[in-house]
Amino acid sequence: MYIIPAIDILNKKVVRLREGDYQQVTEYDVSLEEMIEKYQSNGTNFIHIIDLNGAKNDFSNQEYLFNVIRKTDMKVQYGGGIRSIDKVKELIDSGVHRVIVGTQALTNPLFLTELSNEICGKDKCSDQVVIAIDVLDEVIKYSGWMESSPIKLMDYVDKCLQLGFFRFLCTDIDKDGKLGGAGIKLYEKLLDHSPFIKLIASGGVSSMKDIEQLSNIKVESCVVGKAIYEGHITVEDVKEWNLSSLISI
Q: Which fold has domain 2-248?
């Protein structure tokens, strides 16, 4: 299993939100460029960047973020306000390695089908699209976690798989930003339902013990943010774990 360090950007600043609430913002005195430089090492070549402005349809960060992404050798997994096929293409053309889609995939019935045809081809989705599933009590939430989808969680996973999408970023909202432990039960249910999906876990990771638990249930990778900023997991812990995982493959 691989650790992907997370960097959330709001108004060009590195922040973390508690439970996705823009009113509960912790701002960190470090730049995006400095954070990327800290993580870059042999074994750690992925970074997870969320444009929190973009998630609210404010793209004032985008030029700044694109400039940073173009300059780094790190592979970027990027999300925030991706509402069209053209935006997915724009991000990929700008050097983003993986694009995360969420709200539009849930609210536009044709979006995933069109995305599969345009980006992934008819037979197999490429590695460039990640389906975000933000879950609270097994209900899928969207639009900044303010709205609830009527689509059942496992039905949605099945729909995505049928269209060729196989990589999912699942955030356990109840755990997010609290440093109270990862949503192991939720991830176990997803993997029991579809053992072959590539699952990226997000939310609640507070220690290397949580990382070990996620590794034991065979998630592909996990996104870690606040635990690093708050000193519960060090940058060196991330580098050592990732290098060890790379060697063991």
A: TIM Barrel (3.20.20)
